[in-house]
Design goal:
It is found in: Cell projection, Ruffle membrane; Cytoplasm; Membrane. The chain is mainly beta and 186 residues long. The protein contains one helix and seven strands, in the order βββαββββ. A seven-stranded antiparallel beta sheet has the order 1-2-3-5-6-7-4, with helices on one face.
């Protein structure tokens, strides 16, 4: 099904910034209340992210019982949430600017059991104007069904670079406000 996603002919592959950190460098949460990465979000994924090779990042989280869909397996929307987060982080690591998700498509290739530790790799494939094309895959690296050679899901996503003013509209509804987690500090 991934073949439904085609990259545009005028795609531009960005260069890494000179101050881009090396592979393995931790990437802090972008907002403590974020469902994907926040450490002040008890129902969230608390995904831990690091810089990967080239234009990629990595993320990891364990599938808790609360993420259940069908008996014993992850809910598909949770997997999409994780892809959304890690692909957004890939954009942010490369551009150090805020992005929002415009469009995503996810392939669910294998059932993922509760207790599995998932490792995601997401990358920036290129840009066209403000559009950032990304892709990602996920493997089970620990716990039940662990096999780091098997891709159990994959995703493509189009993100759009936005200014900080995009988030001004949400401030009245926010459960707190970002402080030291300013995304420019990544
Ligand atoms: C002060 C606090 C700061 C905090 C900062 C935190 C930032 C953290 C940053 C990084 C961390 C990463 C971790 C986060 C991960 C999770 C991210 C999410 O889940 S975000 C929530 C879900 N997404 C939305 O809510 C978007 C809702 N949509 C919109 O707001 C607009 O539609 C928006 C911004 C996407 C585009 O609107 P326009 O008016 O700015 O621009 P137009 O001209 O419409 O689009 C620009 C280009 O994008 C294409 N485009 C837009 N939407 C598209 C779509 N759905 N499919 C295909 N193309 C699309 C358009 O065709 C256009 O392309 P052409 O340059 O003309 O070729």
């Amino acid at each position: 099904m991934s073949s439904l996603w085609t990259l545009p002919d005028d795609l531009v592959v960005p260069d890494l910034r000179e101050d881009h950190p090396g592979p393995g460098a931790p990437i802090p949460q972008h907002w403590s209340k974020c469902l994907g990465c926040g450490d002040d979000q008890p129902t969230g994924l608390a995904m831990e992210c690091t810089v990967g090779e080239g234009l990629s990042v990595r993320g990891r989280f364990e599938v808790a019982t609360r993420f259940q869909g069908g008996p014993g397996f992850i809910h598909g929307g949770i997997l999409m949430t994780a892809f959304d987060e890690i692909q957004g982080f890939a954009c942010n690591a490369v551009f150090r600017k805020p992005v929002v998700t415009g469009h995503m498509g996810t392939d669910f290739k294998r059932p993922i059991p509760l207790g599995a530790v998932l490792e995601f790799t997401a990358r920036v494939d290129g840009t066209v104007r403000r559009k950032v094309y990304t892709s990602a895959d996920v493997r089970i690296v620990d716990g039940p069904f662990a096999d780091p050679d098997v891709i159990v899901g994959s995703s493509h996503g189009l993100f759009v670079l936005v200014g900080h003013e995009h988030f001004e509209k949400g401030k009245d509804f926010a459960d707190g406000l970002p402080g030291s987690e300013d995304i420019s500090s990544i």
